[in-house]
Amino acid sequence: MELLQSMMDNIKPVPVLTVSPSWLSPGASITLSCDVIHPSAGWKFYWYKEFRTSSDKYVNTVKILPMSINGTATATITINEPSHTTGYICVAGRGDPIIYTHRSKTKFVWSADNHHSVSLKVSPGRTQHFVYDSVLLTCEGNATNSRVMLYTDYGSLYRCSTWGEENGPVCKVTDQQPVKAVFWCESELGFSNAVNITRQSKFIDGIILVSPVHPVTEGEIVTIGCQLRTGHALSTVSFYKDDKLVQSDGGAEMTISTVSKSDEGFYKCQSSGKESPQSWISIKSGSTPEGSSPHILLFVGLAFGLLLIILLLVLLFCYKKSKGETFELVIIS
């Protein structure tokens, strides 16, 4: 029995990594949890980010997070305000010398916003497509050796070439299989924005929701629609947000004239007993430029105003002097 226990102890376990939330919101933090057998038995935890090498080969490497160089005593950590799509991995270790577990499976945190020199463009520009449609995915930007990747809703990671024709930074998805997956670009500069794409079933009378593939800025006008595979017009369509009816008498389209954060959510449409898959519509702030805070903008505004006043006073002084008049500045306290 002791021999069996010793053999079990020497088997390297595979930790299970979970991330929450899986999609980023501005200013939000994420929580990583690394689950391993016998969690109270002296484990330390090491956390890594995955990134792409400059090689064109399908090889990614990892970099340890600074907070975990010496390992963390807890199996859960919080990362404040991550800004872009990232893959995370955890490893546990214990003993002297340290014996490590295997690496966990990579878990991704997705960002719909683009923060790198490479971005993903989708054509046609919508989140849902029929399996008979060709979907063109293009990595745009200054990166070299960009490639399109996808992560399916059943947890498998693929190069886009598995599902279509890949030519450098361009991938044409032609596989006629229904799939729901997150697509993004990888390059030596990092990961691009991520896009959630659903390819609907082969049924000829199926319907899809036509919705924006990228985040919508607050204050903009957004129109979503409902489309039949046959292309025939739909007369009676109901639109739902988070499974609640929001429109039932406006035809095959619904328009939100001034988008706000409260409009963010999962949308779907129904018509004649058919229902589309649901898609997430993301709303991003349009009031503050990226990387700025209200305090910084206020300071910049005040400084600009002060400089403008000084400039006007200098011009007035020069004008008075040219006319041979004296200029007095009276300060009332």
From TrEMBL:
<keyword id="KW-1015">Disulfide bond</keyword>
<dbReference type="InterPro" id="IPR050488">
    <property type="entry name" value="Ig_Fc_receptor"/>
</dbReference>
<feature type="transmembrane region" description="Helical">
    <location>
        <begin position="296"/>
        <end position="319"/>
    </location>
</feature>
<dbReference type="InterPro" id="IPR036179">
    <property type="entry name" value="Ig-like_dom_sf"/>
</dbReference>
<dbReference type="InterPro" id="IPR003599">
    <property type="entry name" value="Ig_sub"/>
</dbReference>
<dbReference type="GO" id="GO:0006955">
    <property type="term" value="P:immune response"/>
</dbReference>
<keyword id="KW-0472">Membrane</keyword>
<keyword id="KW-0812">Transmembrane</keyword>
<keyword id="KW-1133">Transmembrane helix</keyword>
<protein>
    <recommendedName>
        <fullName>Ig-like domain-containing protein</fullName>
    </recommendedName>
</protein>
<dbReference type="InterPro" id="IPR007110">
    <property type="entry name" value="Ig-like_dom"/>
</dbReference>
<dbReference type="Pfam" id="PF13927">
    <property type="entry name" value="Ig_3"/>
</dbReference>
<dbReference type="GO" id="GO:0004888">
    <property type="term" value="F:transmembrane signaling receptor activity"/>
</dbReference>
<feature type="domain" description="Ig-like">
    <location>
        <begin position="15"/>
        <end position="106"/>
    </location>
</feature>
<dbReference type="GO" id="GO:0007166">
    <property type="term" value="P:cell surface receptor signaling pathway"/>
</dbReference>
<feature type="domain" description="Ig-like">
    <location>
        <begin position="205"/>
        <end position="282"/>
    </location>
</feature>
<keyword id="KW-0732">Signal</keyword>
<dbReference type="GO" id="GO:0009897">
    <property type="term" value="C:external side of plasma membrane"/>
</dbReference>
<dbReference type="InterPro" id="IPR013783">
    <property type="entry name" value="Ig-like_fold"/>
</dbReference>
